[in-house]
Amino acid sequence: MTSLQNLEIFRHRTYLLLGNGRDALFDLMDAVLTTRSVASFVELSLSPVFRREWPSIYEALQDGRPSRQALMQEYVRHIPTSEVVVLAGDHTAWSRPYAKTLQDRTYEHQPSVRSGGKPVAIGQGYSTIAWIPQEQGSWALPLRHERITSFDTPLGKAATQLRQVCAQIPGHVLFLGDGEYGCAPFLKQTADIPCDKLLRLRPNRVLYHAPQPYQGNGRPYRHGAKFSLQAPDTWTVAQEEMTTHDPKLGRLKVRRWEALHLRQAGDAPFDLILVERLDTPDSKPLWLIWMGQQKAVLGQIWQKYLRRFAIEH
Question: Can you give the pTM of this predicted structure?
Answer without folding.
Answer: 0.89
